[in-house]
Each structure stands twice: as structure tokens, then as C-alpha cells.
Amino acid sequence: MSKTISKKRHGDNTNSFEHLYQLGLTYIQQLSGHIWTDYNTHDPGMTILEQVCYTLTDLIYRCEFDVADYLSDTSGNIDYPTHGLALAQDIIPACPQQPDEYEAWLLTRLPELDKVWFRWCENAPGLGIYTINAQLNHFYALSQFRSDSGSHSVYTQQHAAISHIRREFYRVRAPGEDLADIELTGQRPLALTATIHISDDVTDVTWLTANLYHRISLWLESTAQNTPVYVIKEALLAEDGIQQIGQLQFTQYNDNTGRGAPVPVDNIAPFSYLKLPESSADSGIEIIQFQHPVDIDYADLAIQIEQIQYLRRAERLNTTNAPTLPEGRYFDFSRYESVQTLFPRNYHLAPGIPNHYNAQQQAQRHQLRSFLLLFDQLMANFCDDIAGLNTLFSLSLDSEATYHTHLLQDDEFHNIDQHYPPNASARLERLRAKFDDYPERKNRIFNYFLALYSERFPDFLHRQFNPYFSAEAVEKQLLKYKQAFIRNITTMTNGRGLGDNLLQPEHQGGYSQRLSLLLGLFPHTLSPLGYTHAITQHALNLVPNEPWIQSDIGKKVMPLLTPEILANLQPVADNHTEEGVDEEQARKIKLAMTLFSAQTLPEVLLQLGIDNRRYRLLHREEHDDYQLFFNANSEEPRQWLYIASHNNKQQLTQFCHQLQRWLIQLNQNSEGLYVVEPILLRTQENNASWSDYANRITIVFPGYTARFTNPKFREQVGQLVIENTPAHLLVQCQWLDFSAFSQFETLYTKWRQAKSNALQRRDNQPECDAIATQLYPLIQPPQAATNEALKT
Q1: For residues 498 and 514, what is the distance between their CA atoms, to the nearest angstrom?
Q2: pTM given for the model
Q3: 463: confidence class by pLDDT, cuts 50, 70, 90
Q4: Which of 188, 359, 406, 555 could hold 384 in an S-S bridge, CB 3.0 to 4.6 Å?
């Protein structure tokens, strides 16, 4: 939006008053030129055209503000997450994938590390198993634990560093990757003994001493072979301010606490580090200036060294500050002033009624105001549309409207009640809803948000395979799926290649979350109860059809109906409600149905019982009641599943609809997925065949729900999984029946907990290996499927 008014003519501006006026005049001439010939300014029609064109320029002006102004709140701030906008510092930095990227990542997050070497495990190169070697920044470590003396301090530092490295790796590890070991190198400290003469021009002796320690530490960490001490001495003499080094000696401690018996060394081993003196009492360095020893504040010396280390670290990591976020200005775009206030005074359109007007003149005035109300209403609606851009271009689904109506008030249009029809608000709302296809328009906006991040949601998958919702409801459900996807856009894009954090048994990584949201599964954390709990919490066991039909309860509730009964079966009225079923209602459904008396649920009822077309009502006149049947066997048209009976047809119909909604809930709550990485199931006993476990992913699904039993849906899911899996990984989908999935889920939950325990304490590894041995066969595809895959 321009901040100044240009002096140039605006003839080429299609939004200018002159252009709008001329365009309106052209339309008038085309549509009514044969009866309207006076186009002078005194003509009332031309006056109306002038005022409408002027008002349109005001609406155009409201459309030319900066985007930030439309998205800002009353304080001028923008809620970026609410508008589906991820911050640059969150979404741009990529998670590590290569060894050098892991090294940089660890150095950035862990200031106690000075160097990191990220390597393939020697026993399994190229299999996704790594070994991490790290060297501590001992100046940092000593400053953090200065109050704790003795060997306990050093061991605490080392244990904490290893824990931090493990924590950071498993937070960002990719699927199919794991750690074999973490080792700390260079744990034998060196103590420095030296007498150094410095220049009389040196003003900050402490800083010079800190710089000497820093230079020596840099030199020690850069050497990869044994180095004589005199080489370091010659390097120090080249430093500014150093005049003479009378003595320079290093002593090596025989343990990593730095408190054992010191042994002088002439050659320094690789990865040695310099021990920082904690006080003047144990200091071996003496600084001579003006031919006198200089007292050094060793607390200040430690601070100076830390500052030098920090500056070096920041320079090496090339850290940058987060960019400044745009801010907007708040404007009340919904504020509207009637076009009638712009008319000349002789039109008498101002508030109030002139006393000298007779009845005819008042009627003419009322008629003109009602005619102008059409323009006022359209333009006031448009002002509300502009004000609603903040909500429209957000992730909010609270207001199911993309267009808006503005109910004019008396201060905006005097005596508006005399011009509005009865129930004006409801009429305007019905008119808006007639033209406002909210799901379609909001979906397009969400697609725009996704396109900002080069993402695309599989709408076709949910529209084509949709057994749980009506066609209208699935469009609204798509909005919820996309809303959740965009709210987690950082994880969905930046973290799409992250595996589960094995230190947290219930954690799902970005890869798992992305697949779940694309399939409309709303992941959060893995529940200890699992997906089978959706059925078992009702004390039910899902049973295959054939065994259930042959069971006592199956024979009891699945009679063969006579042709006379089949002819009298009536269809059930359509179900137009989509309300959920609470626990109390579910309990009543179970008690009312004979087939649940054996605590079993046949697969056919779970999978097909959600279809209202499979239910029929039978009116028994001799008993004066109604029976509800379900068509469970398409091969035998006479065999129907008895559901319930009631003497009231309407109540039985409501029960049928409630049963369907409950079955839909059971299906939806049973659907989920588990990402299993075979390489994580390796054990020490089978280390010779680790290559069979490597670079593979198995996605385990419950294969017994209405949607997940569809072969075409499974085929589409397999393709979607491949498209969203890193290219170097071989991925397969495993669909398990209720019994196998229940067994898998129990073992997998135990294994995740055991794996977490084993990573923190090696003593727990045998338990983890034992569970992994039982779990691994469950994720193997059937032999027939394996042979077919090998042929292709």
C-alpha cells in the first residue's frame, strides 16, 4: 500500500474513482441508454453512481494493506502458529543425516564437548550402527564441577557427558540407525609447569595467561602423534608479549582424575588435554614481569579461559541470530459508514425526518433509503469479509464461514429496523450459507498453507476409502486432518526423517507421526494400553467369522429366515446423526444384545456393521414388537444375525443407529500403526546376521478394521508409505489379525520399555534381547508373500 498520494494522473488505474465512474456510466448507457439520456451531475442517478464509486474506492483502499496488518491482533502482534506459519529457526535447520552433520549437531548442543568423531561400527559398516568418540572440553567441565573435588567429580563429568551424547543422538536419529557404543578419548590430564617472562607492555596479565592455556590446549588437540615438548615451547615464544621461557615441563597423571602421582613427560601423546589449575597453591606456572612474579587471580583466569572458549566455539559453529519477525498494525476493517451520509443535504438522507415533509415525501425518502440499503448491505458485508481474513487464513475451524454478513445497526443506518424484514439476521445467514461452501473454500486455504512447505495431503485416499463418514462429513474431517498436519508442520517436514526416541518408551518420531497424520490417525504418544484396548476395554474379544459362526452363540443368534420373513423385512431409516457414544451408552448396547453374552465380537459385525443398508426390521404382529436383523452372510441370503427387539419401532431404529456409531468408534479407535526397525531388534547372539536386519522398516497395522481390511486401501497405503520413507530403506507393511496384533502389541510395548532401560543400564540388555527374540518373528511377512515379492 502506498504511503503517499501520487501527483500523477490515475487514468491507467482501474481502481480509481474516475475509471469506476466511467465504467458505471458505460454500463448505464448499454443497459438503459434508450430511456436514460441525462448524464449530468444534477441527475439523481448520477449522484448515486458517484457516491457508490467513492465508497468502492474506500473498499479498495481497505484491500491494499500489508498482509501483516490483516493478520495482526489489537496489539499489532501476529500469532504465527495460529496462522500456520512456522518460524525460520524451527523449520529451516535440517536434522543431521551424515556423520559430519551428527558431529556438528552434537558440538552445537553440548558445550562440554570439544571434538566428536562419528563413525560406522567396525563390526557392521554401512548397516546404520554407529560408534561415537568424543573429547571433552575440560576447561568447561572443570568450571562446571569446580566445587566437587576428587575422582568423583571427573567420573561424574564423564558419565554426564556420555548421557548427554546418548540423549541428543536418540532425539534426532533417523529410522534404521542405532548406537553401538560411546567412548570418551583423551582422559589423561597434563599439568603445566613453567616460568614465563613477559613484556613490560602487557597490561592484562590474566588475559595473557588465559590465552597461553588456550593456545596450548588448541595445539594439544590438533596433534595426532607423539610430540616433543620443545616444539610447544618454540610455538609459545612466537606469541606476542612472551619474551623468555625459563622452564616448560608437562607432567602426566597415571589416572584420569588428575590427582594421581605425576610423571614428567618429554613427548605428549595424542588427545591429551591441559588441566586447569584451581588455585595458586597447586599452580605450576609463574609469570615474571618487571623482574618480579605476578599474582594471578585464578578464579578470574578460569572465567577468561571460558570466554575465549565460548568465542572460539561460536565462531566455529557460525551461529546466527534469529531474524526479526514482521509486525503489523491493527485496523478495525469491519467499521462501516453508510453511503447515505455522502449524499448532498438536499436529498435529506441524514438521520431524522424533516418536520415539513408530507406523507408522500416521507414515503419517497423511505423508498430511496431502502433502495440504497442494497448497496450498504453488500459493502458492509464486504467490510466484514476483510475483517474476517485474520480468521479465514488461520488454522481455526471454530467459525464455519468464509463469507460474512453484517447486520447493520442504527448508528450505521438510521432507523434500520424500518427497512429490514423480520428475522433479518437469520435471513442474511441463510443467504450466506447458500453461497458459502465452507469445507471446499477452507480446504483450498489449507492446501495453500501446505504448498508453502511443498506438501500435499492425500485427499483422494480419504475420499475414496471412507466407510466412517458421509460425503459431507468427510470434507470436514479432511479439514481436521490438515489442521493437525499444519499445526505440526515443523515435525511433518523438518522432522519427517526422525525415528522414535528410544530413551522414551512412549515417544513417536517424526516419521511415524507423519505417516499417522497422512492416514488420519491423529498420533500423540504410544499408549501403554495399545490400540487393541479399544475393544478389550469392553471385555470383548474379536473373533474370526468362521469360528464364531460355528460357536454356540453364533448358532443361537444367526438363524435361517424363512422366505415369508425375508419378504417382510423392512429397511432401516437413514442415520443422520454423527454424535459419539459414551461409556454408559456402550454398556447398554452390550446388555441389550444377546450376541455379546459370550464376550465375543464377530469380525463381520465390526467391519460391516457400520453400514446402515445391511440392517432390516421385522414387524411381528403376533408379538406386537419389532426385531432388528443384520445381513452378516452374503453367501447365504437366508442367514441373518439377530441384533435386538423392541415394541417401539422408532426406539429400535435409534438403537440401530447408536450401535452403528459405536462400531464406528471401535473401528476408528482401533486404527493405528507401529514403526518397527529390525536393526534395533538385533542381539549379540545373532551379530553375524545383522545385515538381515539393516536398512529395513516394517510398518505394523491392525488388519481387522473396516477400512484396513480393504485390499485396495492397503495397496494405496503401501504406496503412500514408500513415498514418505527414506529411499535407502526397504519398507514393508504388515497387516495382522486381532490375535496376532494383540500379541505383537504386548511384546512391542514391553520391548520399548526394556530398550529404554538397556540404553541407560547395560545390565538390562539381556532382558531386552529376550523380548526382541520373541518380537522379531511377528514382523516377518508370510512365506507366500515373501516368495511373491522375490519373484517380482
Answers
A1: 10
A2: 0.83
A3: very high
A4: 406
Tell me the CA distances in angstroms from 544 to 586, 666, 706, 738, 781, one per residue in order. 22, 16, 14, 9, 20
Measured distance CA(14)–CA(21) in Å, rounded = 10
Cell numbers found for residue 145: 564441577
| Residue 239 neighbours by CB under 8 Å, 6+ apart | 211, 212, 215
The Cα 296–Cα 284 span in angstroms is: 12
Q: How far apart are CA 75 and CA 48, in angstroms?
A: 38
Say if residue 352's pLDDT is above 70.
Answer: no
339: number of Cβ within 10 Å = 22
Nearest to 228 by CA among 258, 278, 176, 266: 266
464-506 pLDDT, tens digit per residue, is 998 999 889 999 999 999 999 999 999 999 999 999 999 999 9
Q: What is the DSSP letter of 641?
A: E
| 510, 497 Cβ separation under 8 angstroms | yes
Q: What are the C-alpha distances in Å from 450 to residues 397, 443, 724?
A: 16, 10, 16
pLDDT of 578 > 80? The answer is no
Q: What is the pLDDT, as a whole number, of residue 152?
A: 55
Mean pLDDT lowest among 131-145, 320-334, 700-714: 131-145
553 to 197, 556, 637, 642: CA distances (angstroms): 99, 5, 20, 11
Return the closest-CA partner of residue 595 out of 586, 605, 585, 582.
605
The C-alpha angle 357, 359, 362, rounded to 5 degrees, equals 60
Length of the chain: 792
C-alpha cell at 298: 585464578
Pairing state of beta strands 267-268 and 227-228?
antiparallel
Minimal CA–CA distance to 705: which of 537, 572, 532?
532
Which positions ≥6 away from 17 have C-beta within 8 Å? 53, 54, 57
The enclosing H or E element of 730 equals strand 730-736
Give the containing element (helix H, strand E) for 267. strand 267-268
The DSSP line for 670-717 is: H---EEE-GGGG--GGGGGGGGGTTTEEEEEEETTSTTTT-HHHHHHH
**CB-based burial, 755-785: b 16+ in 10 Å, e otherwise:** bbbbbeeeebbebbbebbeebbebbeeeeee
Per residue in 100-133, pLDDT tens? 999 989 988 888 887 888 988 877 788 889 999 9
CA 549, chain centre distance (Å): 44
Percent helix / strand / coil, the chain, rounded to 5 = 50, 15, 35
Residue whose entry in the numeric block shows the C-alpha cell 522379531: 776
Where do we find the cell 438363524?
559
Least Cα distance to 598 among 547, 561, 647 occurs for 547
**Bridge partner list, 136:** 113
Q: For residue 693, give every residue at least 6 positions away whose Cβ sits within 8 Å of its Cβ, in sequence order, or none.
A: 127, 678, 679, 681, 682
Residue 712 identity (one-letter amino acid): K
Query: What whole-number distance in Å separates Cα of residue 563 and Cα of residue 195?
Result: 113
Among candidate residues 87, 86, 79, the one with its CA nearest the CA of residue 390: 79
413 in helix, strand or coil? coil
- Map grid coordinates 588455585 to a residue: 279
C-alpha to C-alpha distance for 275 and 265, rounded to whole angstroms = 15
Q: Which three cell numbers stand for residue 586?
A: 456402550
Place of cell 453461497: 435
Residue type, 511: Y
Read off the C-alpha cell for 223: 596433534
Q: CA angle 766-768-773, nearest 5°?
A: 95
Q: Cα–Cα–Cα angle for 407, 411, 412, nearest 5°?
A: 55
Residue 625, SS3?
strand
Q: Are 333 and 386 in contact (CB under 8 A)?
A: yes
**Contact call for residues 58 and 339 (beta carbons, < 8 A):** no
